Model the fold of this input.
Amino acid sequence: MPTTDPRILELLSRSYPTIAAASSEIINLEAILNLPKGTEHFMADIHGEYEAFLHILKNASGNIKRKVKELYADTLSPDELRELCTLIYYPEQKLEIIKNQLEAAQSDTTLSAFYATTLQRLIRVCQSVSSKYTRSKVRKALPAEFAYIIEELLHESPSDDDKQAYFDRIIQTIIETGRADAFITALATVIQQLAVDQLHILGDIFDRGPGAHIIMDRLCQHHSFDIQWGNHDALWMGAAAGNDCCIANVLRLSLRYGNMQTLEDGYGINLVPLATFAMETYASDPCDLFGPRLDKDDTTHNEKTRRLIAQMHKAISIIQFKLEAQMILRRPEWQMQDRLVLQYIDKERGLFVKDGVTYEMTDTFLPTLDPAHPYDLTPEEAELVRQLHHSFRVSDKLQKHIKCLFSHGCMYAIYNGNLLFHASVPLNADGTLKEVDLNGQRYSGRELLHQIGMTMRSAFNADTPRQEKQFAKDYFWYLWCGQDSPLFDKDRMATFERYFLRDKSTHEERKGYYYLLRDNAEVCDRILDAFGVEGKHRHIINGHVPVRVAGGESPIKADGRLMVIDGGLSKAYHNTTGIAGYTLVFHSRGFELIQHEPFESADDAIRRGTDIVSSKQIVELSGHRLRVRDTDKGREILSQIQELQHLLYAYRHGILKERTRQ
Done:
């Protein structure tokens, strides 16, 4: 056997100093290669819907319920199955309810008996979800406080007569020492973690829903996840970088959906200056067209609050259009001059006149607009922008979450034969990759997305030259609404027209060629080839555009090469899609698409045991059960095995001496 690089052998020998050590590691790695492939979950477009998202994580898109039914369908009633599942999802809250119920009912079932039965059931579930992992990997998932005990219980069977007393005594001691609640919570957490090996988030954590900050808190603690940035994520990243256009858009969208929780409660953004300015400037304006989009059953916003939100919404919208115009004038290379719209407003007649065509406006009360200098901020607006800018820049929690997005994220990723990105890859009309200008250089496909990601990172790097950093900060806004942005990919963002022009034909936003051609299998193959994705069963997976299931649209496109998994988790999209989100699951048997119905609330789930109603669609089944050796990780392990075999050869042929202890 030929030897490998001596430097690699020298490094390996430090970890595996003897033939025995190297041989043992080869045996271990070969065993791992034959374990079933870990389960991957893909989700997109969460849009702040934290309760639904967290519940989907807790129930592993229904996988935990399936495991529980497999184990106990013949021995437990439907109510008991539901109680056990809810206990796994929400252990601390459910335990309190159960203990109160037992105390109130004064039933024959004692708390000690409940603990004993529940612990044994949870251990069986934990054994089931951990069966595809090595002991080492399971051990890493265990909480330090109970690691030894859980490991003992997982690898012992209470049905073994020789071990029955040992097993029972452990259970009883846990109860007698008052540690049952903590132990149940620990087991439930381990079950949740082991049920999903890798979580892929394909963009758009932010905007619309009320809890993007809660989602980010949870993700930052998750054991294994990655993010492919979406346009809404880029918008918040730009705001955190200090891009005033992004800040204005973030505020406008939050006000549009009546969502101030993420801004105020999550990130401590001070909205008092905006509220004060809006109330003073638009005191006599009903701002009817700027009322927040709220659920029909919303009771948290009274009329006074809704009016204030509408005033703030209008105020920041006008400021946004001015700031964006200033950006367009500063960056003429982006060719967005058609978005210079305020100059066409005829304030005296209350009309919009462009290219000889007159359009009726929906709103003509524009007290801060100077027709002679339409893109200048008033002194009050300029001061407000300064205050808002400061508030975003000094938010420690926002900066922490953006850092998490960078440490776990990128514009695209390739995992196990799947190309992941949020929205699109810019294409020409013939389906070839489009070359796009980025700061004077032209890129396409994989290199384009890579260079965009590097540009985004440079906005936050302390050693980035000033001019380069300023471009990077500006570019976040282009990613949000620029024609050649792979996160947008439309001819324009017609925000002004949708707000202010009655003629709905002016509201149209024409999609780029990716969206027009993505049903074509040949085009998808060309993209996959360009990104170097190999394999007989390779796919593109993305979100961004909600799949109109109610209208008969399928999420599976291009003969199975493309999977679009934006099923409308956000409540704002439920009427459009007819469902409430997707999870794509890739396990050892193949792909399943889990379609979710609307989620009531975590409180309802805890008290009544309700769950997200989900249905499965088999997307693609493998002819054989996929093992670790069939994955990217498996290829890494095979490479490690080859290097270790080189090390063995070197030891056995005297090329390298074993490091035996003296």
Observations:
- The chain is about 50% helix and 10% strand.
